[in-house]
């Protein structure tokens, strides 16, 4: 007599589901990378733009008063972290565009009519793609900063940079993908990207410390998610990496490294839960 | 046994009602044609069957599954070839098929074998390794069809598969569909080409204003008309009063039935005749009442006649009428996932 073990069957089923999800996620990620390789101009522009910013801004503020920046660092050293975070932020904010175009051109229907193991594969493939690109761009900024004599992070510093960027990219990519489902078309999504991009940069500590800002802007900068990503990365350039150190002297109090990462984690999880019902509805 | 059963489907886009109590039963292993003008609700019905759209109300059963609840199982059973070919211009045709195979979880060996089979069957070997962006409409459609067939679905759904295609591509697609029908694949095909449905379909339904107004085998539907189709015009541009007078005269003649005034075509009269004698005597009857025969055509009944009989207008006239009423922007917005 043949008997079946329900728990074994369940385990096999979940292994199959995992393998299927892996297959569809890698295929969708591969598609995004093929697009990038065959249209490399977006990658080149994405790497070149922050480098131009680095060169121009560092030159522009090279003669700023010596007490302008904390710790007596040069403006180039100060700017690197801000540009790394801003580049990752911009890339993640644009993550919804390919999905929006797939939606508009009907390609998304091809994905939605397929028996995907989980439609989260569509979201995960975008996150993997954007994270990889952000890390590549960040590496280019770091290499250029090093060539310009602005320093190089330690191994622990690298780890901290990677964790910080991952948290930020996850959060903003999720938000952008959510917008790609909510908004009626790519024009509206591009408009939001345009409106959000530069103001979020200027209202953070990417270009100037809070102490240099008027009080109202200091308040905005000290609750801006970009600031919580910029300051740990800025610290990663200073040895030793100490997450207990105070990184932000905000108007509401002092914020250390752990708090910065904690806030980013809360933001990521919060945004995920915020957009999850939307993704479930659209992708169920 | 029915592979698809739709019951009382309703679907609206804003104030426009796309489906208005649609009922449809598609037998397993048949090639079933949905005929109707653009805007009749064909694409909406197909999208609901494919789980891309949810109806406002009604039930959908596909291959024994409730398509509104068991979406994943339904998706496994079907292949969908949409009206607007959705391909990634950057990928090559072969890469797109590989992507499709992965989305349907085919194993590597089987996927490769199926891709080669379909490339050969749809005669795509010369251009399959080129980027999709360089393909003509016919090439795109063939590739799309290959994508829909890659996982060997039990049900193939095709939405206007040959619109705007060259003769060669159309012939390749028709050939494949006939072959699939022999292999017991259930095929649901929507079209506004009469000859396509006439040539391919085992059974068909005519959809008008979101519901089925006639269904059955194409030959049976034509036979049901009961004779040959005659189109008569007593003047180049008749008016309603005159057309109505002629209608009253003709409908009382022996061997004449189903007299319809076609307003869109200059108040011409369409009717069925049992024998050629009726036509021979027609001008005599008309001249007695001071009417002349300006134009008269006589033909075997076609599906257009079936459509005309059911709706009082030809398929082309219905298309022109609906084209002005549709709000494509709203439809796209509402149906976009």
Name the average pLDDT of chain A: 86
Instruction: Tell me which oligomeric state these chains represent.
Output: heterodimer
**Largest interface, chains and sizes:** A-B, 30 and 30 residues
What is the number of beta strands of chain A? 2
What is the averaged pLDDT score of chain B?
A: 87
Bin the helical content of chain B: 25-40%
Q: Which percent range fits the helix content of chain A?
A: over 70%
**Tally the helices of chain B: what do you get?**
13
Structure, briefly:
Chain A has 284 residues and is mainly alpha-helical. Chain A contains 11 helices and 2 strands; from the N terminus they run H-H-H-H-H-H-H-H-H-H-E-E-H.
Descriptive notes:
The complex is a heterodimer of chains A (284) and B (337). With 284 residues, chain A is mostly helical. Chain A is built from eleven helices and two strands; from the N terminus they run ααααααααααββα. In chain A, a hairpin with a 2-residue loop joins β1 and β2. In chain A, α6 crosses α7. The radius of gyration of chain A is 21 Å and the shape is globular. The model of chain A has no long low-confidence stretch (mean pLDDT 86). Chain B has 337 residues and is of the alpha/beta class. Chain B has two domains: 216 residues, 3-Layer(aba) Sandwich (Rossmann fold); 75 residues, Alpha-Beta Plaits. Chain B contains 13 helices and 14 strands. Chain B is elongated. Chains A and B meet through α1 and α5 of A and α2 and α3 of B.
Helices and strands, with pairings:
The complex is a heterodimer of chains A (284) and B (337).
Chain A lengths: L5 H33 L2 H20 L14 H19 L2 H9 L2 H6 L7 H28 L7 H28 L3 H17 L12 H9 L1 H12 L9 E5 L2 E4 H27 L1
Antiparallel strand pairs in A: 1-2
Helix pairs in contact in A: 1-6, 2-3, 2-6, 3-6, 3-7, 3-10, 4-7, 6-7, 7-10, 7-11, 10-11
Chain B lengths: L1 E12 L2 E12 L3 E5 L6 H8 L7 E6 L2 E2 L4 H7 E4 L11 H11 L4 H14 L15 H13 L5 E5 L7 H16 L3 E6 L2 H7 L2 E6 L2 E6 L1 H7 L3 E6 L6 H12 L4 E7 L5 E6 L2 H13 L6 E5 L3 H9 L3 H9 L4 H8 L2
Parallel strand pairs in B: 3-8, 3-9, 6-7, 7-8
Antiparallel strand pairs in B: 1-2, 1-4, 4-5, 9-10, 11-13, 11-14, 12-13
Helix pairs in contact in B: 5-6
């Amino acid at each position: 007599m043949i008997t079946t073990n329900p728990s074994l069957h369940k385990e096999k089923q979940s292994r199959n589901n995992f393998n299927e999800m892996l297959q569809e996620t890698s295929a969708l990620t591969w598609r995004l990378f093929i697009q990038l390789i065959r249209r490399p101009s977006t990658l080149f522009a994405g790497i070149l733009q922050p480098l131009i910013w680095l060169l121009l801004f560092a030159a522009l503020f090279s003669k700023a008063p010596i007490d302008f920046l904390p710790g007596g660092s040069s403006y180039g050293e100060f700017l690197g972290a801000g540009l790394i975070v801003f580049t990752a932020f911009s890339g993640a904010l644009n993550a919804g565009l390919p999905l929006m175009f797939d939606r508009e051109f009907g390609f998304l229907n091809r994905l939605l009519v397929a028996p995907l193991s989980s439609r989260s594969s569509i979201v995960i493939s975008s996150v993997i793609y954007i994270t990889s690109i952000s890390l590549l761009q960040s590496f280019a900024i770091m290499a250029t900063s090093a060539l310009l004599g602005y320093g190089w992070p330690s191994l622990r510093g690298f780890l901290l940079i990677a964790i910080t960027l991952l948290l930020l990219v996850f959060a903003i990519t999720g938000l952008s993908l959510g917008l790609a489902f909510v908004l009626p078309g790519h024009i509206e999504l591009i408009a939001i990207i345009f409106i959000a991009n530069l103001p979020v940069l200027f209202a953070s500590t990417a270009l100037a410390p809070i102490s240099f800002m008027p009080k109202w802007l200091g308040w905005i900068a000290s609750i801006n998610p970009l600031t919580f990503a910029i300051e740990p990365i800025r610290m990663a350039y200073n040895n030793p990496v100490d997450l207990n150190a105070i990184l932000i002297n905000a108007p509401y109090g002092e914020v250390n490294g752990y708090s910065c990462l904690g806030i980013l984690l809360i933001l990521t999880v919060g945004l995920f839960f915020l957009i999850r019902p939307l993704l479930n509805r659209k992708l169920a | 046994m029915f592979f698809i059963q739709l019951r009382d489907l309703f679907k609206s886009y804003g104030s426009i009602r796309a489906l208005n109590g649609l009922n449809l039963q598609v037998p397993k292993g048949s090639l079933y044609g949905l005929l109707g003008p653009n805007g009749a609700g064909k694409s909406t019905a197909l999208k609901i069957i494919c789980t891309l759209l949810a109806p406002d109300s009604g039930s959908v059963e596909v291959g024994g599954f409730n398509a509104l609840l068991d979406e994943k199982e339904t998706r496994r059973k079907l292949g969908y070839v949409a009206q607007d070919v959705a391909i990634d211009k950057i990928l090559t045709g072969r890469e797109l098929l590989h992507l499709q195979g992965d989305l349907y979880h085919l194993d590597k060996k089987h996927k490769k074998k199926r891709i080669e089979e379909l490339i050969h069957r749809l005669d795509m070997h010369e251009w399959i390794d080129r980027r999709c962006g360089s393909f003509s409409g016919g090439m795109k459609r063939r590739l799309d069809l290959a994508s829909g067939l890659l996982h060997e679905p039990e049900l193939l759904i095709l939405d206007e598969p040959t619109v705007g295609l060259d003769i060669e591509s159309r012939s390749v697609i028709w050939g494949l569909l006939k072959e699939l029908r022999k292999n017991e694949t259930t095929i649901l095909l929507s079209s506004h080409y009469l000859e396509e449905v006439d040539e391919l379909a085992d059974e068909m339904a005519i959809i008008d204003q979101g519901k089925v107004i006639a269904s059955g085998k194409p030959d049976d539907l034509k036979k049901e008309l009961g004779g040959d189709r005659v189109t008569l015009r007593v003047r180049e541009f008749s008016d309603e009063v005159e057309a109505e007078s002629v209608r009253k005269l003709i409908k009382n003649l022996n061997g004449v039935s189903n007299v319809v005034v076609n307003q869109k075509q200059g108040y011409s009269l369409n009717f069925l005749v049992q024998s050629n004698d009726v036509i021979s005597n027609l001008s005599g009857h008309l001249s007695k009442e001071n009417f002349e025969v300006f134009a008269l055509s006589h033909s075997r009944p076609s599906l257009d006649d079936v459509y005309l009989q059911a709706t009082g207008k030809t398929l082309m006239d219905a298309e022109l009428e609906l084209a002005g009423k549709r709000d494509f922007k709203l439809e796209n917005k509402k149906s976009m996932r």
